[in-house]
User: What shape does this take?
Amino acid sequence: MSTHVITTGPEDKDTLYQACSISKAITALAVAKLVDQGHLAYSTLITDHLSQEVVDLVVDSKTKHLFRHLTVSHLLSHTSGLSQHGFPGYDVRDNLPTVSNVLAGVPPANTPMVHFTTFPGAEYSYSGGGFVILQLFLEKLLRKPFATLMHETVLEPLSMTRSYFDPLPEDEANYSVPYLTGYLKAPSGPYHFVELAAAGLWTTPSDLLKAIAAVQASLDPTQDGFLSHATVQEMLKPVQYVRGGNSIAHGWFVTETAFGHTGGNEPGYGCYAVGFRPKDVDATPMKPAVAPWGSALAVMTNGPYSNQAVWNITSAVFHLQTWPRLAALPAGMVDGEWRAVSALTGTEIDASWKDWIGSWQGWKISDMDDEPAIQFGELEAMALVAAAAPVHLPESSRSVIALVVDGLETQVTLTWNGDERVVILLQRESKTVRRAVT
Assistant: This one.
């Protein structure tokens, strides 16, 4: 395991970051362990271990019957039909709402009442509200505070020694604070969460990779993993299709080759964690040589444009590790959305770029002193430089050339559609494709 820190401040490899919605994936790992221990099953009804008082907070006479059909699987897979995508957090530690306040949507909670919007099992609809109910369910089932049961079930057994659920210990000093710019701290500091299962984990990239490794070891039937082979397969079994090769499983987003989760908390935190399945395991059909088998990646940030930084770093890691460009990452980039920054100065560009010289819809790729350039309208041409991105599609032996406009956040990919040359122009808000050399 290698760790790299990019900072203008005091952060190091042991600095804590808010894991945001990756908290849901770690919660799902705890649920899977509890399944192995015989405490529950994915089919367990929520009403079996939840007080009527809590149920009454989120239903009325018209929807009360729906709760009787709600299962652990529904909550973990965001197919519960419940509302409230995410939570903004609170900028002070005192006068925090209770979890019941959050479910009911009453002060000092700052989000509306959690309620049914559709039938359980009918569709995928991301629901942090569902994970709040799961938090109360687990506390009632094990008769322990959520932070305690998570520590005993996952964090301590996996030696995740730099991981805590909010609030942090009073003597903890090495944690990241959010920044509004590269140098200006957010005045309020980190926000606090009572919605622990949904967004309350503090951790490090190294600790997240311990959790990923535990899942990977459990997927290998030749190893004694943290989870039984049957349970880890059930945890990562697709429940509903999401988009772009992504499905939602039990607490994790999954593709044919990987599992992962992303997250973002205001102000300033963004993160991503992904693990690739070990090769030759009993899983969904997989193509050979299209994934970095058994590898993993975790990125955590606390600055401006955090999500953009996460995807730029992810793309750069793929580039540096020479991992192939995949059609989709779990909860991440899908084909055509890979974001990149410029590669190291001096990185050579495949000379075949000249085959794409031409114009389309006000854009033009041209030769500027034997190097590629791009021009929009009558503006001056700007240089194109090599991008830090995976550039070889696994299903094609032809070169795919990834470039960025030097000085801008605009990416140009030179690729193919059959025998036709294609230019994909990826800007901040849009993507355009040009399919002819003119």
Observations:
- The longest strand covers residues 258-265.
- The chain has two domains: 17-320, 351-434.
- The domain at 17-320 is CATH 3.40.710.10 (Beta-lactamase).
- The CA atoms of residues 24 and 197 lie 6 Å apart.
